[in-house]
Structures are given as C-alpha cells and as structure tokens.
Write a structure and sequence with these properties.
Number of strands: 5
Largest sheet: 5 strands, mixed
Order of helices and strands: HEEHEEE
Number of domains: 1
Number of helices: 2
Strand content: 35-45%
Helix content: 25-40%
Structural class: alpha/beta
Distance between the termini: 31 Å
Length: 83
C-alpha cells in the first residue's frame, strides 16, 4: 500500500466518514438523519475537505435539500431517499 493510501486509511478510521472513489476523486459521504433547518457540516467532514480537497461531497439527511461550499468542495445535502 502506498504511503498516501495508508495515511488516508488511518485517517478514515479516525473520522468515521464513508468515502467513495470515482476516477481519481475521493467523494466524502456523511449520513445525518435528522431534521435540518440550515446546512451543518460535521467536524470530520470539514477536516477531510480541508486536507484532501475533494471536488464534491454528500451529506444524506432526513428531508433537507441544500447546497453549500467548504473551501473548494461543493457539498450537496440531500434526503436519504434521494439515492
């Protein structure tokens, strides 16, 4: 395993995010099955976005739709039933 991949694997264990890889892009996915009134990003999601700079991310919610941006990452808040 390459050093960067090993570091990423260790980091993922610490932050409890789901990550998918599409091409060369890592896409963080977090499930927050609660009622939102405004976008709320968890500390783990923010830290991942700052460190790895993914182009987009996804927060699955109970019924909240919204788009937000953290640094250069476009984040979509979408209901779980959307997927």
């Amino acid at each position: 395993m390459e050093k960067r991949q090993k570091s990423l694997a260790v980091s993922l264990l610490k932050i409890l995010l789901n990550i998918i890889k599409i091409g060369e892009n890592l896409i963080p996915i977090e499930v927050k099955y609660t009622n939102f009134t405004s976008p709320k990003l968890g500390r783990s999601f923010i830290n991942f976005a700052k460190k790895y700079k993914p182009p987009r991310g996804l927060i699955l919610t109970k019924g909240f739709w919204e788009e937000a941006k953290i640094n250069k990452t476009d984040v979509l808040f979408a209901p779980v039933w959307f997927i």
